[in-house]
Specification:
single chain, 441 residues, alpha+beta, FAD/NAD(P)-binding domain, D-Amino Acid Oxidase, Chain A, domain 2, 2 domains, eight-stranded mixed sheet, 32% helix
């Protein structure tokens, strides 16, 4: 029996969950009994829900349970910056691999359109906005990140627009950035509201258990026994869709690096505050040309999001002291970009986990005939988790395709040394990256 040492926790005030229009909808009760299903999926984020939706399409008679330690939308899927990114943007990648990048683009677009269909089908109110995305640089030293990105875009034939100076300031409402590259295909949304809506769409297709942390799993040739506090599930097939927690279950070993980052979200700006910076400005989202730089959003309901600060946390949770330090950095970043809004407070500050791998490839595999795992979405999990979950269901159902073969070939996460070497290397790299980012944080 595999006992679980570290369980998911809330890690602060979850801004997207607290502001989600569907936050009070009851999606599932805690598991407090013994029940049997054909398939159990651990993890009710975008990946696990994608598995459930697709498996219900392929095997309509199968009984499916999805179990999560928290409420849907409180986990990693509801804590990110709310981008569904269409374009490959690994700034460490080196020379562009055109065929590979175009294949990733098609997969990301597939995920966007599938989520768009669910938004329409299930009437999900999530501030969905086809806004595109800016990649920006403040520091001259980081302009090379934009050059590397446009090299990928040019090689692959992807559309973009380069902006600088006053033209860029008019788009963003701040003159903080020297240059930017705008790409049109990205979607912005409230991720907690979206993932909760996707979960609600499983009604009649799967049984959802919220607030039900799994404390142990026992597997044998007869199937799986999944224990929670006060309940248990029995299943023939088990899917692990828990990202960094996959190593807790023993199905992934020495492949994952849990990196915490932090977000702060304001209340909606008043009319006067909004007009002082953003008169005539449409809602937008930007990421940094440096991997450790700050992500910023101006939302359709006139809030501002700041996301930055990186910690390596093998405990799979954050500490209050880390969130306090992140809040202080968020204030510096916010006031540097929007000095006229220095009096605007953050209503919510929280931590969330990036599940990173050394080679930026995910774990996507059949562990044995009854056990499957997806993890390591490397910070782009809304799109990547959605398409990996979809195609994992295809793998489970024996539904082969060229796309599934491509995914299996290109999602083989590289080995990472064990702690303490893993921790030493990760913390050294995060410190170096943060120092190099400079004013882009």
């Amino acid at each position: 029996m595999q006992s679980i040492r570290h369980l998911p926790q809330l890690d602060g005030e979850l801004g997207w969950f607290e502001t989600a229009p569907n936050r009070d909808r009851v999606l599932g009760a805690p598991l407090k009994s013994s029940q049997r299903f054909d398939v159990v999926i651990i993890g009710a984020g975008f990946t696990g829900l994608a598995v459930a939706h697709r498996l219900a399409e392929l095997e309509p008679g199968v009984t499916i349970a999805v179990v999560d330690a928290l409420k849907v939308g409180q986990g990693t899927s509801g804590r990110n910056a709310g981008f569904i990114i269409d374009l490959p943007h690994n700034l460490d990648a080196g020379a562009p691999d055109v065929a590979y990048n175009q294949a990733l683009y098609r997969l990301n677009c597939f995920a966007i359109e599938r989520l768009r269909h669910m938004r329409d089908q299930f009437a999900i109110d999530c501030l969905w906005h086809d806004a595109g995305k800016y990649m920006t640089a403040h520091e001259t030293a980081n302009l090379g990140g934009l050059t590397a990105f446009t090299a990928i875009l040019d090689a692959c034939g992807f559309a973009y627009e380069s902006l600088a100076g006053e033209a860029l300031a008019r788009r963003l409402g701040t003159a903080y950035y020297q240059q930017a590259v705008y790409t049109p295909g990205n979607v912005l949304m409230n991720p907690s509201a979206l993932v909760r809506g996707v979960a609600a769409g499983l009604s009649g297709k799967a049984t959802l258990f919220e607030d039900s942390p799994v404390v142990a799993v026992e597997s044998s040739s007869r199937g799986h026994r999944i224990r929670t506090v006060g309940g248990e599930l029995h299943a023939e097939r088990l899917v692990h869709a828990t990202n960094s927690f996959a190593e807790e279950f023993g199905v992934v070993r020495q492949r994952l690096a849990p990196v915490f980052t932090y977000g702060s979200l304001t209340d909606p700006l008043t009319e006067a505050q909004y007009e002082s910076c953003f008169s005539g400005v449409r809602p937008w989202g930007l990421t940094s040309a440096h991997p450790a730089g700050t992500t910023v959003r101006l939302t359709p309901d006139r809030r501002i999001l700041i996301r930055n600060t990186l910690d390596f946390n093998p405990s799979l949770g954050s500490h209050a002291s880390q969130r306090a330090e992140a809040w202080r950095q968020h204030r510096r970043s916010f006031e540097a970009r929007f000095p006229s809004l220095a009096s605007v407070a953050f209503r919510h500050t929280w931590g969330g986990m990036l599940c990173m791998t050394r080679n930026h490839e995910s774990v996507f595999q059949r562990v044995d005939a009854r056990t499957y795992v997806v993890s390591g979405c490397n910070g782009v999990g809304v799109a990547k988790g959605s398409y990996l979950g979809y195609y994992l269901a295809d793998l489970m159902a024996g539904h082969d395709s060229e796309t599934l073969q491509f995914i299996r070939q290109h999602n083989q996460a590289a080995w990472i040394p064990p702690d303490p070497l893993r921790a030493l290397a990760a913390r050294w790299r995060l410190r170096r990256e943060s120092a190099q980012a400079g004013g882009d944080i």
